[in-house]
Predict the structure.
Amino acid sequence: MKYPIENLFRVRVKRTYVGLGIPDNKIKVDIVVPRNGNKVNLKKVTPMNRDEPFIIPGPGEYEIGGTQVTSVGDGYWEIRIEGWRLCYLCGNWEKPTSKKVDKLGQLDLLFLDLTGNKKEAKKAEETVKRLSPRGIVFGYKIGKEFLDKIDREDIDAIEKVKVKHSDLTEEGTDYFALK
C-alpha cells in the first residue's frame, strides 16, 4: 500500500492494483474507486494488468476480474479482493448505522480519507470503534488530528507497507499512517 499523492491510496493485491481516491497526478492502477461524485481524468490513469483501467462510475455493485466493489452508501465502499475485505471511507461519510456494521462484517483493512479537521477526527474515532477493523490505513499528514483523538501520537508515518493476513493482530487494530 502507498499514498503517492494526497487523497489517493494505491493498493496492490497479487497482480491487481486499485486506486482509492482521485488521481490528481499520473498513476498506474487497474481499478479506480473515486471519491463520491468525482470525475476521473482517464489521461491520468495507466492500467498495470488490464487493457484499460476500470473507473467505478458511481454507486452500485461491480465485478472486475475477480475484484468485487460495492457501494454501501454514504461514502462507504467495500472491496473484496483475493480473500481480503477492504472498506474505503470517502467524501462526506457518516458514522455507520448498526445495519451498515452488520453488512460490512469483519473488515481486514479500513481506508480513511481524512481532511484533517477535529470534528472529522472525532467521527473517525467513533467509526473505527463501531467497525472494529483489523487494520486502519490513512494519510499521516492529514491524519494527525485523528491520531491525537485516539491517543496514538506514537505512530510514525511510513512510505509504504506490505501486509499479509497473518501480520494483522487478532485482537485490536493495527494502524498504518502513510506519508
